[in-house]
From TrEMBL:
GO cellular component: nuclear membrane; sarcoplasmic reticulum membrane
Pfam families listed in its UniProt record: TRIC
InterPro entries xref list: TRIC_channel
Gene assigned in the entry: Tmem38a_0
Protein name: Trimeric intracellular cation channel type A
Annotated compartments: Nucleus membrane; Sarcoplasmic reticulum membrane
Superkingdom field: Eukaryota
Membrane topology of the entry: Multi-pass membrane protein
């Protein structure tokens, strides 16, 4: 489902052009995440850790993908349907900013220094997102 996106990393390596901002492993798109989660589910089913038949898993996963794609297309949404689940799991697995990470540190002289964080980038409009998609498609076509 996301083979082209993952192979672009190897293509960049072979050409000698490294663009971390376009690395699919670092910034996963919905198809890459869905492929990864599907691979995990099917592996768990094959090792009998997931008690469901292969036919049912194929059916439910296919229906989930169809519903997500139709919903995302109908609403012109670029948000991942996995975001609510990831927002719950990521702080548990990786910790959150507010859990035990102070906003300052002490140097050897005992003075504290505030750590300033840059403001988050502004949200992109639909036109900007569509323009970025057109540019990526044009670049792939080259």
């Amino acid at each position: 489902g996301s083979g082209v996106a993952l192979m672009s990393n190897f293509e960049q390596l072979l050409r000698g052009v490294w663009k971390p901002e376009t690395n699919e492993i670092l910034h996963m798109s919905f198809p890459t995440k869905a492929s990864l989660y599907g691979a995990v589910l099917f592996t768990l089913q094959q090792t009998h850790w997931l008690p469901i038949s292969e036919a049912n898993l194929i059916f439910f996963f296919s229906m989930f993908m169809i519903v997500c794609k139709v919903f995302m297309t109908a609403t012109h949404s670029h948000a991942s349907p996995f975001a609510p689940l990831e927002n719950l799991i990521c702080p548990v697995l990786f910790g959150s900013v507010s859990s035990g990470h102070p906003s300052h540190h002490h140097d050897h002289h005992g003075a504290s220094h505030e750590v300033s964080h840059p403001p988050p980038p502004p949200a992109k409009s639909k036109e900007e997102l569509n323009e970025g998609t057109r540019k990526r498609k044009a670049k792939k076509a080259e």
